[in-house]
Specification:
Layout (H helix, E strand, L loop, with lengths): L1 E9 L5 E7 L3 H8 L8 E10 L1 H11 L4 E3 L2 E3 L2 H12 L3 E5 L19 H4 L9 H9 L4 H13 L9 H6 L1 H6 L3 H15 L7 H37 L3 H11 L4 H25 L34 H11 L5 H19 L3 H13 L7 H12 L4 H13 L7 H20 L3 H13 L7 H12 L4 H9 L3
Antiparallel strand pairs: 1-2, 1-3, 2-5, 3-6, 4-5
Helix pairs in contact: 2-3, 5-6, 5-10, 5-11, 9-10, 10-11, 13-14, 14-15, 15-16, 16-17, 17-18, 18-19, 19-20, 20-21
Length: about 475
């Protein structure tokens, strides 16, 4: 839809402009205003025929919000208002008409080809104040917020700390959105370096380090942005003397990268939704697994597992018997078949991402149950399960690094995995999980991932024993309890 955006003035109200839009000739708007009792007539200083005039008028109001008086009235001058209209309308302008160009010709819109070089250099950015230049660089997104921040920074040069929620919530991506590429890489560089220490410190401590980095960045983000905007303005003023060109150049170099919102904000959830719909359709066999019959030795499923993983119940009575026989080198054709079925089932669940099955498969490889003993393969499956918070796999990795089985011996990494196991066990133990209580007691007894403490070990063994855990009862007897 085509229409006009216009600038109307009245001599009785200096420095006040009426800026709006109309589907009819703006002269009719001025005539309508002239019906009111006022000593001087309303004059249309400028109008432009554009596409979607209402939308453009809203953008103009956002750009000039710092000088908005009331309704369609703004305290500004015509040249600045024309720049704002051109910024808002961009390629939508069909025809421009500066109706009073002969009466009032702003210097910034005149061409003076006959001027000598010294005279041309006198045309500097005098009518555009610093706030206008800020607006050009900031763009249309959150203009008022950043103008207020910059105004405070201009007043108090020594104190440039303030809080930016966007920088805190979206971290380095905020810097990328605001075209501060250097700070984007600095932020993620610091985070990446700190990430290297995750396996050698307590996980909660590392999270505190990351939180500290995010808080510091959010506190300094506005001052970083202020300095960047100032830098862009100074560089442009040094090389550009014409106001219009200066403003347009800052607009081009400033603003925001809207693609960041789409690439990092919209695309991931959309891809996730599409994948969640498409993958089950493409691979239905992996999402409709029937429970195995005759499961009598039930495992407590990991709380992080999907519904399909809950079908991985554990060992049947026959499987348990055959596993014991295999460990005792007592083989039979029937057990070979049962063991083969057991391994096929565990691998199936493991390959579908079930942590408890991945941990079981790691144990199969580590002990040579049904497979040729392969410590490297054991590490691969233990790690997959450990990354899903399976405490058995985390302790297995800790032992592997401690003893150098399947990996290079490393006491620091071993302790890191032991600590993660203790952290997960503690959560479950405090919720009443008898197996987690037993495992936590063992950790205190052995001093793995936590300081050795026999009192704490007895406390958690007793908790587990009270729920009927015979293993915990045996440990208490060994400790004289």
């Amino acid at each position: 839809m085509k229409g006009w955006v216009y600038i109307i003035t009245n001599k009785s109200m200096p420095n006040l402009l009426n800026i709006g839009f109309s589907n009819n000739d703006p002269v009719l708007k001025s005539e309508e205003l002239n019906k009111s009792e006022i000593p001087h007539p309303y004059i249309v200083e400028y109008d432009a025929l554009v596409n979607e005039p209402k939308e453009i008028a809203q953008k103009i109001q956002a750009i000039l919000s710092h000088c908005h008086e009331n309704k369609g009235w703004f305290r500004s001058d015509v040249p600045k208002a024309i720049i704002a209209i051109r910024q808002a309308a961009a390629d939508s302008i069909i025809v421009e008409n500066n109706r009073n160009a002969e009466v009032k010709k702003p210097e910034i819109f005149k061409r003076e080809p006959a001027q000598t070089k010294p005279e041309a250099e006198k045309i500097t950015a005098k009518s555009l104040d610093i706030q206008d230049l800020y607006i050009a660089v900031i763009g249309e997104k959150n203009t008022d917020y950043y103008l207020a921040q910059f105004e405070n920074f201009d007043k108090r040069q020594d104190d440039k700390l303030s809080w930016n929620w966007s920088a805190f919530l979206f971290t380095g991506f905020w810097a990328l959105y605001r075209k501060m590429y250097g700070w984007f890489f600095v932020y993620w560089g610091i985070v990446s370096i700190s990430k290297l220490f995750e396996n050698v410190v307590i996980p909660k401590v590392w999270l505190l380090i990351y939180l500290g980095i995010s808080i510091s960045f959010a506190t300094l983000a506005n001052s970083f942005y202020y300095a960047k905007v100032k830098q862009k303005i100074k560089a442009a003023q040094h090389t550009i003397k014409n106001e219009t060109t200066l403003f347009e150049s800052l607009q081009y170099k400033g603003g925001v990268n809207t693609w960041v919102t789409w690439v990092f904000g919209v695309a991931p959830p959309v891809i996730g939704i599409v994948a969640s719909i498409a993958i089950p359709t493409m691979y239905p066999a992996q999402t409709a697994i029937k429970p195995m019959p005759d499961m009598i030795v039930e495992r407590i499923p990991n709380v992080s597992q999907s519904v399909s993983c809950k079908n991985n119940k554990g060992l049947t009575e026959d499987e348990l018997t055959c596993l014991v026989n295999e460990a005792s080198d007592k083989h039979s054709d029937e057990c070979m078949l049962i063991n083969s079925q057991r391994l096929a089932r565990i691998r199936k669940f493991a390959e579908q991402g079930c942590a408890n099955a991945q941990s079981d498969l790691g144990a199969e490889y580590a002990n040579g149950w049904g497979f040729t003993k392969d410590e490297a393969q054991a590490i691969i499956w233990y790690r997959k399960a450990a990354e899903q918070s399976d405490t058995g796999a985390q302790r297995a990795l800790g032992r592997a690094y401690e003893e150098g089985k399947g990996v290079e011996q490393d006491a620091v990494i071993a302790e890191g995995w032991y600590r993660k196991a203790v952290e997960e066990d503690r959560k479950a133990a405090e919720q009443g999980d008898l197996l987690a209580q037993y495992d936590l007691a063992q950790s205190y007894l052995e001093g793995k991932g936590v300081a050795k403490d026999e009192t704490q070990a007895i406390f958690w063994f007793r908790k587990s024993a009270e729920q009927g855990n015979d293993l915990a009862k045996n440990e208490l007897k060994k400790l004289g309890q």
